[in-house]
Design goal:
single chain, YaeB-like fold, five-stranded mixed beta sheet
Length: 95
């Protein structure tokens, strides 16, 4: 089930924390998208983890409802090729 823009508006006003250096711009874009609404696909294997495309950036984030905070774990340009040595998953330090 994908969250629709209307559903994801419940995250409007949530703080977005970039978990790694270089994610600040994408975190700002994700925060704006929360206010406008976005389509977010839940991760089938991890509760409260989502992926969404924001401003031509593929974002992967964890939403911590109790703290009204989203932790941005990765952000990659949508049209960028994946490097051969790229890790398959980024460990979440916040969870």
């Amino acid at each position: 089930m994908t969250m629709t823009p209307k559903d994801s508006r419940k995250w409007a006003g949530y703080r977005v924390v970039p978990m790694f250096p270089g994610l600040e711009t994408a975190a700002d874009a994700l925060g704006r998208a929360f206010c406008l609404g976005l389509e977010a696909a839940p991760d089938a294997s991890r509760t409260d983890f989502y992926s969404a495309d924001v401003d031509d950036i593929a974002c992967y984030f964890h939403v911590f409802e109790a703290r009204r905070t989203a932790y941005l774990l990765s952000a990659e340009p949508i049209d960028a090729p994946m490097p051969a040595d790229a890790p398959l998953a980024v460990p979440c330090q916040a969870c």
